[in-house]
């Protein structure tokens, strides 16, 4: 299905030297991963991610939270990046500076071949000690959650609601947003902070802001361009149009 991509948008991208991208759960939807806003399916339908994805939730029921993440890890390991991830990996090579910032914890950008991925909210495939905050590479799964050698529970190396983001990741994301000519916001409802501030920072720094999302969000009215389409459909077409414009 051909998406109407304005010529002016292609020209802006063709002329840009520095591009920044923010992705959210929507870019992984076509890989089969439910977005955060979708009701969690199956076993987890009765749980509220806003309660499970918190330090309080982990203290209250470490086993439940550990098993929720273990179930997500197992599911994601069997899924593949989709054409939207692949198109971003190809786009990375076309610009002098291309910073891909993601809110996702699923590693699909890296598995699609993106090199410079700034993970604002950590990564589901990594596990860390809940006391020492140090990533642990191997652990015995003899209990749930497993324990660190120091005796504390292990936990997923992700940023929970109410937790600070990794300082270096946030600094790189803010720097990219403030110095890019074009900022693409893809597959995010733009409701979680401070990630949701990034496109607005780009806007106030004079960048062209492009949103790709089948639905409107709080960013839509601020964006210069809004492509209301699935990222797995529109990103490959955007890459094709850009190649044709630069041929
Ligand atoms: C922080 C990892 C400083 C874990 C995530 C009160 C107390 C404490 C904090 C707050 C508070 N009030 C507000 C806050 C700040 C809070 C926040 O923003 N809350 C929200 C709910 C209002 N933020 C934080 O707590 C952050 N830390 O602020 O620290 C601090 C510290 C203490 C006290 C105060 C401040 C930490 C936030 C990070 C949380 N961790 N993930 C896990 O995944 O389990 S957030 C998680 O949810 C994701 O990472 C992501 O960020 C967010 C989901 O958002 P999206 O990715 O946008 O996904 P969503 O489902 O919402 O939307 C999908 C979109 O895709 C939709 O628009 C849909 O239309 C579109 N779509 C669907 N299909 C497609 C598509 N698009 C394109 N193509 C398709 N095919």
Structure description:
The protein is of the alpha/beta class. The chain has two domains: 149 residues, TPP-binding domain (Rossmann fold), CATH 3.40.50; 82 residues, SIR2/SIRT2 'Small Domain', CATH 3.30.1600.10. It has ten helices and nine strands. The protein has a six-stranded parallel β-sheet, sandwiched between helices. Helix 7 links the parallel strand 2 and strand 3. Helix 6 packs parallel to helix 10. The protein is elongated. The protein starts with 6 loop residues before the first helix and ends with a helix. The model has no long low-confidence stretch (mean pLDDT 94). The structure holds ligand BV8. The site of ligand BV8 has 37 residues, from helix 2 and helix 10.
Give a quick set of tags describing it.
alpha/beta, Rossmann fold, 10 helices, 247 residues, binds ligand BV8, 3-stranded antiparallel beta sheet, 36% helix, 2 domains, 6-stranded parallel beta sheet, SIR2/SIRT2 'Small Domain', elongated
What secondary-structure arrangement, pairings included, does this model have?
Elements: H1 7-15, E1 18-23, H2 26-29, H3 49-52, H4 55-60, H5 62-77, H6 83-92, E2 97-102, H7 108-111, E3 117-119, E4 122-129, E5 135-136, E6 154-158, H8 167-179, E7 182-186, H9 198-204, E8 208-212, E9 225-227, H10 231-246
Parallel strand pairs: 1-2, 1-7, 2-3, 7-8, 8-9
Antiparallel strand pairs: 4-5, 4-6
Helix pairs in contact: 1-10, 6-10, 8-9
Ligand BV8 binds at residues 24-27, 29-30, 35-37, 53, 103, 105, 121, 158-165, 187-189, 191-195, 212-215, 217, 230-232.
């Amino acid at each position: 299905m051909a998406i109407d991509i304005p010529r002016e948008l292609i020209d802006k991208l063709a002329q840009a030297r520095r591009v920044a991208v923010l992705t959210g759960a929507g870019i992984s939807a076509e890989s089969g991963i439910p977005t955060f806003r979708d009701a969690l399916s199956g076993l987890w339908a009765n749980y509220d991610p806003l309660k499970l994805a918190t330090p309080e939730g982990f203290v209250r029921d470490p086993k439940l939270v550990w098993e929720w993440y273990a179930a997500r890890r197992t599911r994601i390991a069997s899924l593949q990046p989709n054409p939207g991830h692949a198109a971003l990996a190809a786009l990375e090579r076309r610009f002098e500076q291309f910073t891909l910032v993601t809110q996702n914890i699923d590693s699909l950008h890296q598995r699609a071949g993106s090199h410079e991925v700034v993970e604002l909210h950590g990564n589901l495939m990594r596990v860390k000690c809940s006391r020492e905050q140090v990533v642990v590479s191997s652990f015995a799964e003899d209990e749930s959650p497993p324990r660190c050698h120091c005796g504390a529970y292990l936990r997923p190396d992700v940023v929970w609601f109410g937790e600070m983001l990794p300082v270096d990741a946030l600094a790189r994301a803010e720097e990219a947003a403030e110095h890019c000519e074009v900022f693409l916001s893809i597959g995010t409802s733009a409701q979680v902070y401070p990630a949701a501030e990034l496109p607005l920072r780009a806007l106030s720094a004079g960048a062209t802001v492009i949103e790709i999302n089948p639905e409107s969000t709080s960013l839509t009215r601020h964006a210069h361009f809004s492509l209301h389409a699935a990222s797995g459909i529109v990103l490959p077409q955007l890459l094709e149009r850009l190649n044709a414009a630069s041929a």
